[in-house]
Amino acid sequence: MQQLFHENYEHNRKGYIQDLHNSKIHTAITLHPNKRPAYQYRLHNYILSRKISELRYRTIQLHRESALMSKLSNSEVNKEDQQLGVMPSFNHFQPRERDEVIEWEFLTGKFLYTMVESQPPRQSLSSALRAALDDTVMQVMEMINENSRTRGRLIDFKEIQYGYRRVNPLHGVEYILDLLLLYKRHKGRKVTVPVRRHAYLQQSFSKPFFKEAEELDVSLLENTNTDTQSFAFLSNSLKIFSSSFQGTRNIGGRSDKKIHILVPLTGRFDIFSRFMDNFEKTCLIPRENVKLAIILFSSESGQDSSKHMQLMKEYSMKYPKADMTLIPMAGKFSRGLGLEMASAQFDNGTLLLFCDVDLVFTPDFLQRCRDNTIQGEQVYYPIIFSQYDPKIIY
């Protein structure tokens, strides 16, 4: 019951859980107390990261099963399965020259011994590496104790005696760990015995979720890694890519799909004037590939509508090649109705941006709209900051 209903009443902690990389946290169904929003956000973020890791691990398993079934059925293996469905092994990469050998780093529970140039041969374990080791060991122990109740035994982790690690940039992080464990048998004659076991582990990389829009300068990145202790372990691994990236070019590139900006509007001429001023700086002068459609609802007096039309006419005369249009609407202002009527004038494959007149945006925002929308699959909902005045910020 204590493991299912976890309670944390440490002195002066007020519900703050220092070590989240703990199997007790994963097996618990309630955590108490946990009342501060900052602590809740931290815990929620960690739980989501664990869920992402589990889904990635399951994805790797499915790729391996798919690759195996393709071989058994004597059919062609999917290209993605060829990369992600490879079974774990330390011999995937076969170096052709001495400089291509990925060197192992020796580690203990406190120190890391490395042969990387411009780095001290012995250094303390960084917080990132320590967290990675803790998370790796925790996953190993969860796999070992998965059926501990039926087997009548439980194995606890004590410490890492020593180990080796290296990063294979094509497949993942590889470990050889000498673990000191505590074997506990709780069925029959109870026995508690310390044991040592070697663990050969590989954390396989899953598929990439984003790619660099520009060509990667491997030599520059390698120099940066040698100067930065936190990323020094990548220096030797990047040598594999040095020959591959020479003379290559990014075939993906940045999307330049035309964005159709729809702005429903009534009154608020001063705000509209500010919007057009920002639109001029962001889109008209740089010649962004956009189309502006103002859905103008006529006000009761009609005075504001004439100002809007005159302002649009001035910008059209100033930028004759700009794609701008004004769609007049009658009746009471309705944002949803205006957007629906304007959207009906475009094809299904058109990239639409539903925008309010008080929004101030940048060219980078437009590019994010292109990059984060997938036709028929994904809609981009940006987070709008509305608690400050752009005049003060910019």
UniProtKB/TrEMBL annotation:
Compartment annotation: Golgi apparatus, Golgi stack membrane
Main location, first listed in the record: Golgi
Iron as UniProt keyword: no
Gene Ontology MF, one: glucuronosyl-N-acetylgalactosaminyl-proteoglycan 4-beta-N-acetylgalactosaminyltransferase activity
InterPro entries with a match to the protein in the record: Chond_GalNAc, CS_glycosyltransferase, Nucleotide-diphossugar_trans
Keyword Transferase belongs to the record: yes
The protein's name in its UniProt record: Hexosyltransferase
Enzyme Commission numbers on file: 2.4.1.-
Family: Belongs to the chondroitin N-acetylgalactosaminyltransferase family.
Key words, A-Z: Golgi apparatus, Membrane, Signal-anchor, Transferase, Transmembrane, Transmembrane helix
EC class (word): transferase
One Pfam family per UniProt: CHGN
Topological category with respect to the lipid bilayer: Single-pass type II membrane protein
PANTHER family: CHONDROITIN SULFATE SYNTHASE 3, CHONDROITIN SYNTHASE
GO cellular component annotations of the record: Golgi cisterna membrane
